[in-house]
């Protein structure tokens, strides 16, 4: 199951950074896109959106305003689900996803991993 961390950061204080580590430690395949190139837990963070094949889950770490630039990208990936982490809730994107038959959850990736619900 491949997960895209969208809004990835190399800052250890950021939740996207922690999520990458937890996903890798739980043997999930991870790809990442952020606002600057870097590396976390052996995962390269790309600056440009890449059309990764077979993305199962997109986990968002971008506020709703910054998400707008990625609507088409997320939909084009056609993931099974999108996770809206705390602070990323976005009714506009929920509606776009629903129209395309893409499921979403308002949840915390770190909590889902910790409770074995991921």
Structure in words:
The protein has helices at residues 15-25, 64-67, 71-77, 91-99, 109-114, and strands spanning 2-8, 29-34, 38-40, 43-46, 55-60, 81-84, 103-106. The termini are close together. It has 118 residues and is of the alpha/beta class. α4 links the parallel β6 (81-84) and β7.
Strand order of the largest sheet: 3-4-2-1-5-6-7
Mean pLDDT: 97
Instruction: Report helical residue fraction.
Output: 25-40%
In N-to-C order, the SSE pattern is EHEEEEHHEHEH
Radius of gyration (CA) equals: 13 Å
Number of helices: 5
Poorly predicted regions: none
- Overall strand count: 7
Classify the secondary structure makeup into a structural class.
alpha/beta
**Biggest sheet details:** 7 strands, mixed
The shape, in one word, is globular
How widely separated are the two ends? 10 Å
Share of residues in strands: 25-35%
Report a brief summary of the structure:
The protein has a 7-stranded mixed β-sheet with strand order 3-4-2-1-5-6-7.
Give a topology summary.
Blueprint: E1 2-8, H1 15-25, E2 29-34, E3 38-40, E4 43-46, E5 55-60, H2 64-67, H3 71-77, E6 81-84, H4 91-99, E7 103-106, H5 109-114
Parallel strand pairs: 1-2, 1-5, 2-4, 5-6, 6-7
Antiparallel strand pairs: 3-4
Observed structural traits:
118 residues; alpha/beta; seven-stranded mixed beta sheet; globular
């Amino acid at each position: 199951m491949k997960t895209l961390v969208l809004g990835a950061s190399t800052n250890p204080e950021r939740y996207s950074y922690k999520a990458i580590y937890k996903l890798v430690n739980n043997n999930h395949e991870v790809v990442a896109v952020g606002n600057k190139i870097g590396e976390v837990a052996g995962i390269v963070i790309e600056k440009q959106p890449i059309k990764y094949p077979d993305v199962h889950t997109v986990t968002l770490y971008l506020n709703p305003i910054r998400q707008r630039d990625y609507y088409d990208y997320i939909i084009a990936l056609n993931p099974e689900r999108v996770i809206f982490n705390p602070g990323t809730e976005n009714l506009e994107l929920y509606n776009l996803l629903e129209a395309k038959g893409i499921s979403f959850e308002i949840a915390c990736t770190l909590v889902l991993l910790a409770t074995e619900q991921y």
